[in-house]
Amino acid sequence: MRRRTFLRTAGVGSVVALAGCAGDGDQNGTPSDTQQDGTSGDGPQNGTTTTGNRERTLTVATYSSFTGDDTAGNYLKSAFEDERDGVTVEFEVPENGLNQYILQKQQGSNVSADMYVGLNTAELVRAEDGLDAELFLDSRGELDRADAIKPDLEIDPEGRAVTYDTGYITLVYDEDEVDPPATFDELLEPAYEDALITQNAQQSDPGRAFLLWTIADQGEDEYLDYWQGLLDNGVRILSDWEPAYNAYLDGSAPMVVSYSTDQVYYHGPDVDMSRHQVGFIEDQGYANPEAMARFADTDTADLALEFMDFVLQPEQQAEIAVRNVQFPAVEDADPGEEFSEYAYEPPEPVTHTYDELQGKVDEWIEQWARQIAGP
Amino acid sequence: MTADRTVSRALQRAALPVGVAATIAVLLVVFYYPVGNVLASAVRDGGHFTSAPIRAVLTDPFYTGVAHHLFADPLGVPAGVVDWTGAGFPSVRLGLFGFTAYQALLSTVASVLLGLPGAYVLARYDFRGRRTITSLTLVPFVLPSILVAVGFRAMFSRRGVANDLLGAVGLGPVELLGTLQIVVLAHAFYNAPLVTRLVTTAWEGVDRRQVESARSLGASRIRAFSDVVLPALAPAILTGAVLTFVFTFMSFPIVLTLGGLDLATVEVWIYARVQSLALREAATLATLETVLSLAFIYVYLRYENRQVTTRRGGQSLPRERLVAGWRSLFDPRRLAIAGYVAIVAVVIVGPLVSLLVESVTDPSGSFTTAYYEFLLARQSSGAVGTVRPLPAVINSLVFGAGTLLLAIPMGVVVAVAATRGGRGSRIAEAILTAPLAVSGIVVGIGLLLTFVFGTTVAGHRLVVTGPVAIVFAHAAAAYPFVTRNVAPALGGLDPRLREVARSLGATRLRALLEVELPVIAPALLAGAAFAFAISIGEFDSTVLLAEGVDSYTMPVALERYIGTRSLGPNLGPATAMGTVLLAVTAVSFVVIDRLGGRWEP
Q1: Are the Cβ atoms of A126 and B96 closer than 8 angstroms?
Q2: pLDDT tens digits, A310-339
Q3: Which regions of chain A does DSSP assign to beta strands (E)?
Q4: Domains contained in chain B, number
Q5: Where is this region: Disordered (chain A) (predicted)?
Q6: pTM exceeding the 0.85 threshold for the entire prediction
Q7: Interacting residues of B436 by C-beta distance below 8 A, sequence separation 6+
């Protein structure tokens, strides 16, 4: 019974307890029989059977802000290792994300990680379109917790990528400067001249999500005309979320494309909340689910599957939500009062399915970029 | 005894050819092979040569604008020109390449205009801190673009300092963000100091006796300047202009973070193609970009070679005191300098100071030390995946020192080979300068596909990553700057200096080390500072070659801090790390100058 201490982020009051998963490393992980209601600080039920002291390492590839102090990644690592003897979780953080592994596969080298955490639908499409071989294993059918995932958030009809959290892309606006637009067409009106900053869809997640949202709303034949209208009305497209958001904070425009969890960061006694209002155009927000998948080349397929089931447990889901500032993917997770108070879910989430994006998404983005840059 | 002498002379004789061979070997491994591997896919298709991808780009009006007629329908061009003339010369479509060149040209003009007066002040006036300021000229050069964007937003956004100043005199507010103007200003921020540094070095190399002779023979000050000083400065000014043009032609992050996608450059497209794994298209664009840059460099080298200015390495021109008591207030030249200093304060010093201010200011605008505490917390944290600041500083300095050790000999060797001249040496030099002219993104992806993933050499799987690979990559990127600083100075030396040394029995190497290099020490120092700056600021290949978690540098650490979620969407930690980066580089530059200045073989 080891006592575990976690670095807690401020304001999350509940103490985490681990569900006693039967992580005994056998093929089809027996359904976890104990669902601790626990709010006790005790360690897990001794449901872990030592598997002859076998040292096993799970290499998880992810994006850089998922690891480091106080992150969801580090929390998952220590919690998962505490629950299982002889297991080590290691992170790989390649600069070019999933492309690193698609290229490795293309080159015929062995993929160097066991699984990837942080996939989105467009990346999954790119991996599929760019490779003859399968990059990922099917996982969904083998997971005990798969049915707990909200159906709207599933991104992969093939069951390779399994959603673990989601963000919603919305507008963040300054209520002292503008009223939020109710529809996309309103954004073309003089009232919103020079009022919007968004991100480059070629390289930025929220930028791509906003572009796809306009395609979902305007249709794939009209979206370029719509964007020409936005351009004529002075929309600005900066490289990434950070420059765009900070240009917004510096007063360059009264609205910016950002996340609906904006206020989770910006609330407190001396924060002016008028600049952190979340606006749902058409009462929608564009869902950008993040998923995990096992690489086909992994030699620890079972351990990776255990890890996926572990990530989908309610307690872990709550922790990930708070630390990653994203919404849980499962129905039965409670990320706590503070998160729920300041993170808004859109009345009507929209997103493109895998089938809708397949073979199209890169072309949409390229045409859009040519429209913007067309000198 | 004599046998020893003979051996050592033989070794010395072999030194330069060996140096050239070693330089080429290093370049082959860390540059030509990986880059060639990527660019080849632009013209090869399953083992056959193909011009289709290049043709597709050249005939696409999106890329080449009005020039696409030249490639699509060359015979129709004269008629097109006639029509265009008849229509009263309406504005033509530039295309992505045309627009990129256009903004690079504007940026070059702005950088030269902002940089030249600085060289005049530093070379011709004396004031407290002059040497330190000269050492610090390259500091802006090492700043990651994300921080330049922070400083520029603080200065030029709607609520920024510049608009406050304008407001005080009843003007404004001006919205500069998102315009071509701000991109040009930011490019000038990066490159004007480079022009200043190059020209100052050249100006200090002007022999005062030549100017005095001209004056004593009755030449006016202006005449003496235009006949004696200007020819000595011209190669340096043009070098600065060419480097600036090539850099800003390949500019990518700054264009998007301050300007926007409507100001996209070719490099933006290359990056997007690489992101969506359309490597053939990326290679095609990069090939055209490289060909253009190299052609440009080649034309310049031809020009530089024709400039023959012999200097004997005499004394520099005497310096005037910058502040001459109360009379300074009425001296038009000094007033002009004061005006220039004010402009520099806004465009160059302002963003740097803003960065320091940002690092101690919380989102609500009050003083905070939280970001430096964040750095300290990171330093003492044992958590997995934590990027710690101190190792980043040490790595940067170690890689920078390693780069100096490699890049200076490489750069000098190439400069010696270049100044010898001979047939085809311009082309050779242009090709040896290729690291300047190839997009960093392409170098990065080339390294990834060859050494980082492993390559097969003679049946052995070879993986090259880690500190040594990083230093090699930095040296390949940095040595052209040493060459560009040293070659003109070497070429301008009186050949009789070397001949005297040789006739007294010195080998070529000894003459170089003991006679020529000491005379051109300022140029060598400037080259060293450039090489160090390139190494410190390099990001693209470092981040790919940094193995695991132990060889991240200051810019890589900084980029990791931007993504930190524990402090929310906040650049504070990055600005604090950026301030550390600035302090470390500033001290390094001063040290390089002071130590190098004492170098007497």
Answers
A1: no
A2: 999 999 999 999 998 999 999 999 999 989
A3: 56-62, 87-92, 115-119, 162-173, 196-199, 236-238, 255-259, 277-279, 284-294, 327-328, 348-350
A4: 3
A5: 21-53
A6: yes
A7: B243, B246, B293, B297, B480
B340 and B431 fall within a common domain: no
CB A337 within 8 A of CB B227: no
Q: Are B382 and B355 part of one and the same domain?
A: no
* Residue B256 sits at the chain A interface (C-beta within 8 Å): yes
Chain A nearest CA to B223, separation (Å): 45
Structure tokens belonging to residue B233:
């400065």
Matching CATH number, A169-286, of 3.30.365.10, 3.40.1110.10, 3.10.129.10, 3.40.190.10:
3.40.190.10
- Does B519 lie in the same domain as B413? yes
**Are A325 and B565 in contact (CB < 8 Å)?**
yes
Contact flag A245-B256 (C-beta cutoff 8 Å): no
Residues of chain A with CATH 3.40.190.10: 57-167+288-353, 169-286
Instruction: Classify domain A57-167+288-353 at the CATH topology level.
Output: D-Maltodextrin-Binding Protein; domain 2 (3.40.190)
Q: Which helix (H) or strand (E) holds B456?
A: strand B455-457
CB contact under 8 A, A271 and B158: no
Q: How far off is chain B from A186, nearest CA to CA, in Å?
A: 22
Q: In this complex, do A242 and B571 lie within 8 Å of one another by their Cβ atoms?
A: yes
Q: If contacts are CB pairs under 8 Å, which of residues 373-402 in chain B contact chain A?
A: 377-378, 381, 383-387
* Closest residue on chain B to A62 (Cα): B385
Domain CATH for B192: 1.10.3720.10
Q: Look at residue B566 and tell me whether its pLDDT is greater than 70.
A: no
pLDDT in tens, B528-560: 999 999 999 888 888 888 765 678 899 988 888
Q: Check A96 against B448: CB less than 8 A apart.
A: yes
The residues, any chain, with a CB within 8 Å of residue A86's CB and separated by 6 or more, are A50, A51, A53, A54, A55, A56
